[in-house]
Amino acid sequence: MSECPVCGSEYIAGEDTLCQTCGWDLRSVDPSEGGSLSEASLAKEQAKLFWARKMWERVNEKDSSIKGLEWKLADIERQISKVWGRFEHATKERTILQERVDSVLSGMEEDRFDRYQIKKYFTEERNLRQMTQKQVEQKLNQLFSQLQQVNQERGLLQEQIGQVQARLDGLGDEGLPEMLAKLSREIEQLTQPSGGDGLAIRELQGQLEESQQERALLIEQLDRERERVSSLQAEIEQLKDSLHQSQSTSSESRFESEMVDALICAMADSSEAVQRMAYALLKRSHSEKAKMALEEYQPYRFFRCLHVLEHEKAVRAVAIDPHGHFLVTGSNDRTIKLWELNTGKPIKTLSGHAGSAIALAISPNGELLASGSGDNTIKLWHIATGKLMFTLRGHTGWVNTVTFTPKGNTLASGGADKMIKLWNLNTQELLGTFYGHASAVRSLAISPQGNMLASGSNDNMIKIRNLLTGELLHTLTEHTGSVSSVEISDDGNILASGSNDTTVRLWNLGTGKLLHTLSDHTSAVMSVSISQNRTIASSSDDGKIKIWNLDKATPIHTISANKNMSGYDSYILCSTISPEGDKIVTGSDDGKIRIWGVSD
Q1: What is the rounded distance in angstroms from the CA atom of residue 282 to the CA atom of residue 136?
Q2: How far apart are the first and last CA of the chain?
Q3: CA–CA separation, 24 and 49 (whole Å)
Q4: CA-angle at 428, arms to 423 and 433, nearest 5°
Q5: pLDDT band at residue 387 under the 50/70/90 scheme
Q6: For 435-466, how does the pLDDT look when each residue is reduced to its tens digit (9 = 90+)?
Q7: With contact defined as beta carbons under 8 Å apart, do 1 and 11 qualify?
Q8: What is d(CA 533, CA 324) in angstroms, rounded to the nearest whole number?
Q9: Are 60 and 54 in contact, with CB atoms under 8 Å apart?
Q10: pLDDT grade, residue 199 (50/70/90)?
Q11: What per-residue confidence (pLDDT) applies to 191?
């Protein structure tokens, strides 16, 4: 092997005529060997070789410069890419910020309108009370006038009675009966009375009869007037009581209104203890102002971990009964446990699955429990007795989700086999199977009307079907990650979905139109649930529970739930909100169930 005198590359002498690297003519005489060349030829060859080596060095330098420039260019491109990424991120943040600003402005406008309505309501109420008080005062004045008139009439009657009595007294001191007896004796003694005496007697008898009749009439009239006065006095007492009660109610209402105003101001106090006390007192008030204040100052910022319950292994599913009385949890330890929701006290443990209990659903009447498992089966339990009623088999993969129809006689299930199955619970028969998803079905939801079925899958899609006919109505493809959870609002209008793309999205269930995208989570969203008070709770791998206003699509509060009281981090695998929205339950990979709410 020989080396090229220019670039030093090896070549086989006698075979190669040109250097494969630099292109030097290998047949040229090497000046270092000399040979039979003349000095002039040798100098020429040396100059030629010197020139070739210099050119090769320049080529190498240029190649190095070009490579350096290429590296610099690549670095510049990376920097530009980062800048563009930051620019796009800033643009997205600006868009989100603008949406929040618009939402805040909209909320302020709604608050202004609510304050106007409240002011209008209380103005009308005050005017009504003033009118009522004036009417009562007018009625009292009328009654007092009537009473005065009656008193005057009674005085006149008494004067008349006095006159009659005086006339009777003028007839004699013996009294009317004695006088009549005396007159009778005198009449009997006068067998031949004179004409003048008889006439006088007859006149006296006539006057006596008239006086008796007049006295009877006056006594009867006096009794009637006394009854009328008594009735008027009773009515006056009733009106006084009514007026006193009205004034007392008005005073109490004014005091309660002032107290509610003070408590509302206390809700904005810097001390959380003061805020919690004000919230607790406002909950006891029945006034509309207090109710509106409680709606505006959502209690979720006072949520704390009330109870920590435990399975032996990761908790995969949680469910609360429709009445909000008890909690059901499923775990990788293959058991299902029932607990009292308010106290966290264990009720019973259900065993029977040969795999993880990863799906739970409670019937609308709160009597039946359906559980789906990694053993590919569905089991139906009677909650009160804890008795296993029957087992449904048909899926060829894990049963990831189960849900009841509103009537409770049909169950829908979705599994890792990409299929959705409908079961008749009265006959335990398979009614039908829906296909269409390209990957595992993760979540199902049925509308309150029982006519719509929504399914979320690992294929990043949501499918909406007519449950009665099986017709596929809409396929929603806006999510860019697996759809882990779907939920339908109580009015059947809005569908909420959570995805591994870190978003919660709200859809019009009837049209399939995307209404809002909620992007506050920083990791995969594992669960979404909706309460009857139009509140959404979403949980994520970022260790947070976020509470949203369903109608306004705005955040209410965030709970950092990934840290327990000892500061231990855990991943939330499932969550749900109670029907009244006063409790949130989370299940974690550390086997813990945490019940969140406002402590007493």
Answers
A1: 33
A2: 94
A3: 9
A4: 30
A5: very high
A6: 999 999 999 999 999 999 999 999 999 999 99
A7: yes
A8: 13
A9: no
A10: low
A11: 46
SS (H, E, C) 423-453: EECCCCEEEEEECCCCCCEEEEEECCCCCEE
Q: What Å distances lie between residue 559 and 305, 354, 367, 568, CA to CA?
A: 10, 35, 32, 15
What is the tens place of the pLDDT at every residue in 89-133? Answer: 887 787 788 777 777 777 777 777 777 777 777 777 777 777 776
DSSP letters, 373-416, are: ETTSEEEEEETTTTEEEEEEE--SS-EEEEEE-TTSSEEEEEET
d(CA 408, CA 366): 10
Instruction: Give the type of residue at 74.
Output: A
- Asked if 518 and 506 touch (Cβ cutoff 8 Å), the reply is yes
| Side chain identity at residue 357, one-letter code | A
Joined together, the tokens standing for residue 359 give 């799906």
Written as six digits, the tokens of 307 are 């109870």
Coarse DSSP helix, strand, coil percentages of the chain, rounded to the nearest 5 percent: 40, 30, 30
Rg of the Cα atoms in the chain: 50
What gap in Å lies between CA 477 and CA 460, rounded to an integer?
7
The residues, ordered by sequence, that sit 6+ positions from 25 with a Cβ below 8 Å of its Cβ are 17, 18
Q: Which amino acid is at 199?
A: L
183/559 Cα distance (integer angstroms): 111
Helix/strand/coil (H/E/C) assignment for every residue in 264-312: HHHCCCCCHHHHHHHHHHHHHCCCHHHHHHHHHCCHHHHCEEEEEEECC
User: What is the DSSP secondary-structure string of 73-94?
Assistant: HHHHHHHHHHHHHHHHHHHHHH
Cα distance between residue 598 and residue 583, in whole Å: 8
Tokens standing for residue 19: 């250097």
Which residues, 6 or more positions from 375, have their beta carbon under 8 angstroms from its beta carbon?
A: 353, 354, 355
- Per the document, the length of the chain is 600
pLDDT band at 72 (very low <50, low <70, confident <90, very high): confident
**582 vs 181, 260, 535, 579, 588, CA distance in Å?**
95, 22, 10, 8, 20
pTM for the full predicted model? 0.57
Among 51, 28, 33, 11, residue whose Cα is nearest residue 19: 11
Structural tokens at position 378: 């569905």
